[in-house]
Amino acid sequence: MAVISNIWWMLVLIGIMILIHELGHYWAARWFDVHVEAFSFGFGPRLFGYRRGETDFRVSLIPFGGYVKMVGEQVGEDGGEDPRGFLAKPRWQRMIIAFAGPAMNIILAVGLLAGLYMNRYPKVVGSEGAPTIGFVEKDSPAAKAGVQELDVITAIDGIQNPSWEQVTLAVVGAANREMAMLLTRNGKEVTAAITPEIDDITNVGHAGWYDRHEIQVGAISAGMGAEKAGVKSGDVLVAFDGIPLRSTAKLHSLLKEGAGKPVQLTYSRDTKQTTVTVEPKLTELDHKNKRYLLGVQLTPRVVFVALPFGEAMRESVIQNQRSAGVILQLLRGMVERRMSPKSLEGPIGIARLSSEAAREGFATFIGLMAAVSLNLAVFNLLPIPILDGGTILMLGIEMVMRRDLSLQLKENIFKVGFVFLMTVVAFVLYNDISKLLPT
User: Fold this and answer.
1) Measured between alpha carbons, how far is 420 from 387 in angstroms, rounded to an integer?
2) What is the reported pTM?
3) How far apart are CA 101 and CA 66, in angstroms?
4) Which of 163, 164, 219, 383 is 20 to 30 A from 433 via CA?
5) Interstrand relation of 121-124 and 152-156 (parallel, antiparallel or unpaired)
6) In angstroms, rounded to a whole number, what is the distance separating the alpha carbons of residues 266 and 360?
7) β-pairing, 179-185 with 152-156?
C-alpha cells in the first residue's frame, strides 16, 4: 500500500506541474496564433483524449512529462512553410513561447506559497531579529572557524544583515568553499571564515551550527523518563543540568555526553519554571544504533500567523528568490565537483517525499508542490539544448547574429543535448535506486 500511495501522490504532484508548464507554452502559442496540433500529458502512445478545434488534447502512456506539438516546430518537418508554424514566427515570439512554460511554474510557486502564508506563516519563537548561534557542534566547520554560542552573524559570503534562512541557504550551496563572515560577539565585531563540509546524509553543505530558538515538547512517549517526571506536551525546555538550552541540537549533544546519567531538566509551563530529575533510557533506533532518550519529541517553538495578501506575496517572492539561488549554487557546486550529485532526487525520491508530505497535511504538501514547481522552472531554464533554456539561448544567439544557425549545427547541438539529458536521467534513476538498497 505504501508503494501505491507514493505513486499516487507523485502523479498528483507531477501532474499539476506538467499541466501548468505545458499550459504556459500552449497559451503563449495561441496568443501568437501558432497552430498547435497536440497538447499531451505524458509521452508515448496516445491513451485517450478529445479534440477541440485544431488541437488534440490527449493523455499518453508515460506520465513523466508532457509536450505541446506545434506545426513546423522542428526544422525540416512538414508544415515548415506554414505561416502559422512555429518557425515562421519572429524569434522574439518563439522566445516568449519557450519561456512561458517555466514562467508558469514560477508563478505557481509564488502563488502557492503566498496562499499558504495567508493562512499559516511560521515564526520560530526565540529566533527573531539577527541570526544568533544557539549551538556549535564539536570539531565542526563552525567550531574550527571559532564561532561561539550567542554570536550574531551580521554578514556572510557578501550578504549583509542576513536572516537565519539566508545563512542556511548560503551554507547549503557552499560545500568545500570558504566563506567570509562578520560576527558580533559581546558587542564587538569579529571576522571569521568558514568552509562548510558535505553532510553525509543530505549531501549538501553543513556548518555544524544551529540557530537560537525556544525548545518545545511535542509528543510524549509512554513509560519513558520524561513522562514519569511529569513533563507534558507544550512545555518549553529551559535548562539541562543547569546549562541554558538555546537549541534542540544542544540538548541532543548534552544527552549523548551524559551517557545515561539522570539529568536535571528545567521546563517552563504557564510562565512557571520547574526542575525535575529525568532518567534517560537506552533505546534501539534501528538494528544498528542505540541512543539514550528522554521520551519526548522536541521541536523549535513555532507560532503560526496569517499574513495579509501584500505581505504574503512579498514573503513568497523573497523565499522563491532565495530558493532559486540555492538551486543554482548546488548545481554550480556539482559542476565544480565540490558537491555530490547524490543530493538530486528522481521520480522515486519525489514519490517518497510526496507521500510523506501528504501524510503530514495539506500545508506541507502545498509547500512541497511550490518547491518542486520552482525546481522544474530553474531546471528547464538551464542553457541545455532540447530544454526551454537551450531554445532561448539559441534564439538569442540568432538574434545577435541576425541569421539562423545552420541546420546541421542545430541538429548536432540537439543530439548532444539529448545524450547529456538522458545521461542525467539515467544517473538520477540509479541514484534513486541505490538509496533503497541496504548499505
Assistant:
1) 11
2) 0.77
3) 11
4) 383
5) unpaired
6) 30
7) antiparallel
Q: How far is CA 410 from CA 7, 179, 336, 417, in A?
A: 37, 41, 28, 10
Residue 30 pLDDT > 70: yes
Bridge-based pairing of strands 179-185 and 159-160 is: unpaired
Q: How far apart are CA 349 and CA 126, in angstroms?
A: 33
Answer whether 133-211 and 215-300 agree in fold.
yes
| Helix residue ranges, H only, 222-361 | 225-229, 248-258, 309-335, 347-360
**pLDDT recorded at residue 91:** 93
Write out pLDDT tens, residues 161-212: 998 888 988 898 888 899 999 999 999 999 999 999 988 777 788 999 999 9
Highest mean pLDDT among 160-174, 335-349, 420-434: 160-174
Q: Are strands 215-220 and 296-300 parallel, antiparallel or unpaired?
A: antiparallel
CATH, domain range 133-211: 2.30.42.10
Q: Are 181 and 156 in contact (CB under 8 A)?
A: yes
**Beta-strand (E) ranges in 253-411?**
263-269, 272-278, 281-284, 290-293, 296-300, 302-305
CA distance 121 to 140: 32
Region 215-300: CATH code: 2.30.42.10
**What Rg value do the Cα atoms of the chain yield, rounded?**
26
Strands 243-244, 179-185: pairing kind: unpaired
C-alpha cell belonging to residue 238? 529551559
Which pLDDT belongs to residue 203? Answer: 78
- Residue 39: what are its φ and ψ, rounded to 5°? -125, 110
Strand, coil or helix: 150: coil
Task: Express each pLDDT in 246-305 by its tens digit.
Answer: 898 998 899 888 888 999 999 999 889 999 998 988 887 666 677 888 888 888 878 888
Sign of dihedral through CA atoms 120, 123, 129, 132? negative
Please state, as a whole number, how many other Cβ atoms lie within 10 Å of the Cβ of residue 400.
8
* Residue-range domain boundaries for the chain: 1-17+89-121+305-439, 33-85, 133-211, 215-300
